[in-house]
What does this fold into?
Amino acid sequence: MLSFDEPTSAFTPARRYNKNTTYSSASLEPVTIGRGTPHPDSIKIIGGKGYDVRQPVPLKYPDVRQRFLSARHNFWTPNDIAMGDDKVQWNTGILTEEESWLFKCNISYLTASDNLVPDNLDNAILSQITANEMRQYLRWQMAEEANHIESYFFILESFGLDEQGQGQIFNLYQDVPELVNKLNWNLAFTNNVVNIDAPAGSMEASRALLEDLISYYAFEYLFFPLGFSQIFALARQGKLRNTAQQYQYIWRDENLHAINGRWLIRQIIRENPQLWDRKMQERARGIVDEAVKLESAYGQATMPNGGIVGMSVKNYVAFAQFMGDMLLKTLDLPPSFGVREHPMPWLSEYELKQEVNFFEGRVRDYRTGSVLVWD
Ligand SMILES: [Fe+2]
Ligand SMILES: [Fe+2]
It folds into this structure.
């Protein structure tokens, strides 16, 4: 039988594996002979030990695999959506000055944030996940986030903007303090997981991960729909409807990411109930409160004169609070804000639920996969 210290082939790696080495991720552990197929009971969503995470069976969490298959079925490409009407509108100055500012901030922030999400998955979250099916789903999600960035890029490109024009818009997230703050808030959680001075699987490291996941969940469930609603408000006035269509497809993906994020948080708690103590529950509420505050400040900064036609800052803040309360509810926590009714019920018109044939002259089958149905 080969031991850790013996090369497994004629090729000898410069640095051999040592059984005393601790790895930052189960996925970096060397393949070892004789581990065999794990027993389902030994597979854990985080902190699983004694088995190889590269093996797809046994399938411990079939719902997660189903989510992967749904996401894959939903895959779309931005250039399938015709952008001609928006190009004309953009170049004939249909947007008011206020709407133009809102649009530019919106697409700039969303592009930066769609970079942050996969970076968080890549640097902080994926390395701690020890179930193959969840690793698969998160990898697919990363590709979707890249597709969203391509969508934002494609939108500005299709307006006919050159690189300099695009750059002036994309850069805004670095210039507007409320956008900077919101992005750095999420980054702080990611960095906390990466830099924590505690071994993986310890209470401290797992708490950092849980906090990061709650901020991630706020991203997918709160920040994204709020941002999209601004463009849907323009579309309701007959402006940038092609862009809104792009956002509809992005939103459907983000819905599924939110569902998965929420499931992941709850599964970690189910398997590690000691993590979800009063202190952690209070922290979760604190994170959601911070998210709502940041979103409200973003609303103010992007609509500095109190709103645009069809959307007031007041309503926007109420929507952020409503989603904050909904988010808390899905974590079995009492509400913080008491906004009971959706302040923008018209948004449901923009939420893709059913099979839709949006593309003229091209029949495509898009399957339902994004409806926010909780357990
Ligand atoms: Fe995204
Ligand atoms: Fe996402």
Remarks:
- DSSP finds ten helices and two strands in the chain.
- The longest strand covers residues 307-308.
